[in-house]
Specification:
The protein has 271 residues and is mainly β. Helices cover 3% and strands 40% of the residues.
Length: 271
C-alpha cells in the first residue's frame, strides 16, 4: 500500500535515457504481450554484493503518511554478506519515534517476471513488502502490485493490486513454513491480459479481469515499516524493544522475450 508524500524524490531519480520497448515479445510459456510504454528498465539480477547507486534509491528523511510510525532513514538500509537488510529501530527523529528502511528502483519496469527471495519480520503492527508502484508524485495514476507480509500473521502473505488508485483486490495466501522463519521466493508474471502470483514457484493467484490489471510501468520497492494506527489491518503495534530486520537475498526482473537469467528463476520452469 502506497500513499502520502514519500515519493517526492522519485521524479528526479527516474531521469534516465528513455527506452520504449514495443512489438510482440515472447517468453516461453507466457504467450505474446506488448511491453508497457515508457518502461526504462531492462532485465537484471541483483544478488546484493553491494547496493548499486545506479539501480537503487534509498528512501531517507520522510514518511509515507501519518499512519507510518517510523521515518525512512538511509542508515536502516545495509548490504551484509550478500544480502539486503532493511531494519526497524527505536531511533527517534523529528517526525517519528522510530526509524525504518526502504529502497526503490530508479527505473520503471514494464511487463515481465518479477522475483524476490526474502525473509520477513514477525511482529504485530509490522509490514514487510516487495512490490511495484507508480503514482501521483511521478505525475502518473496510482498503479501497484503487492506482496505484503503482515507481521501479526507471518505464516501468510497478502497479494493486492491498485489500478488508477482503486485497490480492494486483496487475497491472503499461506507461505509454507512461515515468511519469517526462512527465505521464500515471491514472484509475479505481469502481462497485458493476465497477472499471476507465485510463492516458491507455486502458482497461488491468477488475475484476468482487465479492471484489476495494472497497466503503467512501475518502480520496484522493498520496505519494512510499522504503524500505530492501522491496527485493523496490521494489528496493534508491539514495540520489539530492539532492532528487527527484513532480509532480501536476491531480486530480478526478466522482460518478456528475455531468457532465463539464473537456474533458480521461475522463468526457467515455465513451459
Amino acid at each position: 500500500m502506497r500513499q502520502g508524500s514519500g515519493r517526492n524524490l522519485i521524479v528526479g531519480a527516474c531521469v534516465c535515457g528513455l527506452l520504449v520497448l514495443c512489438g510482440l515479445l515472447v517468453l516461453c510459456g507466457l504467450g505474446s504481450a506488448r511491453s508497457a510504454p515508457s518502461a526504462t528498465g531492462l532485465s537484471f539480477v541483483d544478488e546484493f554484493v553491494s547496493l548499486s547507486k545506479k539501480r537503487w534509491l534509498v528512501s531517507n528523511g520522510w514518511t509515507n503518511g501519518k499512519y507510518q510510525n517510523c521515518t525512512w532513514l538511509a542508515e536502516q538500509v545495509k548490504v551484509v554478506d550478500g544480502t539486503l537488510r532493511l531494519s526497524f529501530s527505536g531511533k527517534r527523529t523529528a517526525q517519528r519515534a522510530h526509524a525504518c528502511g526502504e529502497i526503490q528502483s530508479k527505473q520503471r519496469f514494464g511487463y515481465g517476471v518479477y522475483e524476490a527471495r526474502m525473509k520477513a519480520v514477525r511482529g504485530s503492527g509490522f509490514n514487510t513488502a516487495f512490490f511495484t508502484y507508480i503514482g501521483p508524485v511521478s505525475k502518473e495514476p496510482w498503479h501497484e502490485i503487492d506482496f505484503e507480509v503482515l507481521g501479526r500473521q507471518p505464516s501468510q502473505v497478502q497479494l493486492n493490486q491498485y489500478v488508477d488508485g482503486k485497490g480492494g483486490n486483496e487475497k491472503v495466501v499461506d507461505v509454507p513454513g512461515g515468511a519469517d522463519k526462512d527465505f521464500h521466493d515471491y514472484a509475479f508474471i505481469w502481462e497485458k491480459d493476465r497477472l499471476r502470483y507465485y510463492i516458491d514457484n507455486v502458482l497461488v493467484q491468477t488475475v484476468n479481469d482487465p479492471e484489476k490489471l495494472p497497466a503503467r510501468p512501475m518502480m520496484i520497492f522493498f520496505s519494512l515499516w510499522a504503524s500505530d494506527t492501522l491496527s485493523g489491518w496490521l494489528g496493534k503495534f508491539s514495540d520489539p524493544g530492539g532492532p528487527v530486520e527484513a532480509v532480501v537475498e536476491r531480486v530480478s526482473y526478466t522482460a518478456l522475450g528475455d531468457a532465463c537469467q539464473y537456474p533458480e528463476s521461475l522463468v526457467c520452469r515455465l513451459d
